[in-house]
């Protein structure tokens, strides 16, 4: 590892004798060391040779081109180039390299800027300055190089002070002004020219400039003589060709800034110098990695502009400029073709380079047409069929459907009228005809006939016994309940002459009971408060029934008219439900009958329980008869007709029976015909579907 | 004009107005319905006051003893709170009264159903096969067996427990399906009987109206 040198740019280990990094091509050897060839330092007494560059002799250019001389020299004047120099120094100072690179400059005392205009006042002065610059360089070359080291005791005081103040100077290198007058009187070469390419070395900002002849040897290796580049010859054209626009407002800098202008104007910064500077910088990875591929590109493929004798040679471009080459340039696809790579930059710092910048941001390939993609969907026939079906469904969703209801409503209304007409015609006609076509149902036609049980219960009630009658039906079904209950009450009142106590869980029950007793049972001539009493409306629903069954006299102490019915001759001091001989419930709903069965059943004792119900509630109450929870059930006109048969006296059941029977037949006929009609409609629809 | 004639004319007109519904919803029908609802509400209010509020609340408060009045404090308070249901800002005050009503009604209903329907009906179904009181055991077994089959199959029809089959569908067991199918037949017969009863009741009411017309016009 001792023979290896680690590249300060990319970190690659290289052999010690390598001058450039094998990875990133960065300079590994310091320029302060011995150089070879043309880059060899000038020896004492050696006259600097004129180098021919692409732009020719800089001095000749200045002498011959009178028109361009003023502008060039004006640009080179310290006052106008000061911002650039100052900017460069400041930028380099930020990188941490400036204290060493500009050690001589920073060490020079500040000169007032007022002296600089004299140097650029006339062309003669400029030529002399340039002449002095060249002569100074030769004088500088005469400085002895090989000197024995001076011991610390032999060193002058200024050098000691320089060493002592080096540490403090390194911390604030840029704060020291740069002055062009810092040049040594023994040499006309500006000090800034000597600083480029020098390795980091402690500087003595406060030390006075020493003559070159008195320059200690410890400083000599750091002299700019090692650069080995003629300042006037190697200055790149891009630094000299663009003339600064004097019309543009120049920043007004102080004298310290203007004093650095000549140093930068010389263009003494060679590629190696800049590489040395950038090599020690903490460059970002992207920049260091991008520098490696850019260098071969610039060096191996000279642009056509350079080959054709243009004013700019790509090889003379500073490497730091090449290092700033956009990374995208390296990312160009090899397939991009020459259309992209063949683009030669004509202006700016990248002028003369080929294929540096992509034609479009992001490394796109403008020369290539985008790949054409077909917008036609490749779908199979099945997929197309499904798509068409989906479109059809969506279209049907949004399409208003014509309403077919008017014809349906009309047909239903017509059907309703037809049925009504038939019912009115047949039922009304036969009712008003007073026919007795249909025979009444005889007793004992059905097994376990509930009517027989009811008649038996009625016949078992003692003469004149109290009977509780519950009227729990609505006025809408009063006609049916009156027709159904009339035969049974006629039989009961006629045979047993019971005392009736009427109660109702419906507010209209009292009125219906009064109507029933005064109209339907008019023939029995039962008088209120004589043969029957009206207890009135029993509030509370099933809870009221439950409470009434437990203690009737407490729940309903007064009759509907407010009289004390429990002490009347009708009830004869009865106070409990079990003291009644029978409980007869007239109801049109199974719910009302079930409430009385469930709540009053356990408290009725030996009292008979008979339910007279509508035909629609009869089937739901039949189980209670079969479970002996009730003793009799008369449901509908059919049961009433049986009771009338048992009574032997025709009544409402007989009066209604023919119309009732014919109405049932009409209903059966309509249902049969309607079913037959639907059957044929369905058959026709099926045939039509099969035909399709 | 006698009151019976007036009542008869009004009843006749109202009957025709109700029959007008055959041609569709019309003002005559609505007027008849409004009259019926209004008269019924007024009549119910009068009955409630006359037969419930006054004898059970007003009379004891006015003419009752101190103990009777003291006992009326609780129902009076609950009634007052129940009236708060009319005004929405104070409707929550009626919640205790509603809780008492609902709780008492539910307790009474459940007790009545269990003791008055469920247990007696189960016992009745079991006792069907008591042949000691039967004179014809074969006929009794046939009839009661049919009833038992109807009861069991109908109850099984309302059993909706199912399992997920291999194909992912949720179905009942095959045996349950067959029993439920038989139960559905019994249910259809029962619903047919109920529909026949409804039609029979309506037909009887129609005939009663014809009877009224005949009586009113002297035809019947």
Uncertain regions spanning at least 5 consecutive residues of chain B = none
Biggest protein-protein contact in the assembly:
A-B, 67 and 48 residues
Instruction: Tell me the series of helices and strands of chain B, N- to C-terminal.
Output: HHHHHHEEH
Number of helices of chain B: 7
What fraction strand of chain A? 5-15%
Specify Rg of chain B, calculated over alpha carbons. Answer: 28 Å
For the sheet with most strands of chain A, the description reads: 6 strands, parallel
List the domain count of chain A as a whole number: 3
Mean pLDDT of chain A: 69
Tell me the β content of chain B. Answer: under 5%
Sheet/helix structural class of chain A: mainly alpha
Question: Can you walk me through this structure?
Answer:
The complex is a heterodimer of chains A (692) and B (220). Chain A has 28 helices and eight strands. By secondary structure, chain A is mainly alpha-helical. Chain A has three domains: 27-328, no CATH class; 412-441 and 655-692, no CATH class; 450-650, 3-Layer(aba) Sandwich (Rossmann fold). In chain A, the strands form two sheets. Chain A has a six-stranded parallel sheet with strand order 5-4-3-6-7-8, with helices on both faces. Chain A has a two-stranded antiparallel ribbon with strand order 1-2. In chain A, helix 21 (478-495) runs parallel beside helix 27 and helix 25 (590-600) packs parallel to helix 26 (618-626). With 220 residues, chain B is an all-alpha fold. Helices cover 76% and strands 2% of the residues of chain B. Chain B has a two-stranded antiparallel ribbon with strand order 1-2. In chain B, strand 1 (163-164) and strand 2 (170-171) form a beta hairpin. The longest helix of chain B is centred in the C-terminal third of the chain and has 43 residues, at 174-216. The radius of gyration of chain B is 28 Å and the shape is extended. Classes of the chains: A mainly alpha (692), B mainly alpha (220). At the A-B interface, helix 19, helix 21, helix 23, helix 25 and helix 26 of A face helix 2, helix 5 and helix 7 of B.
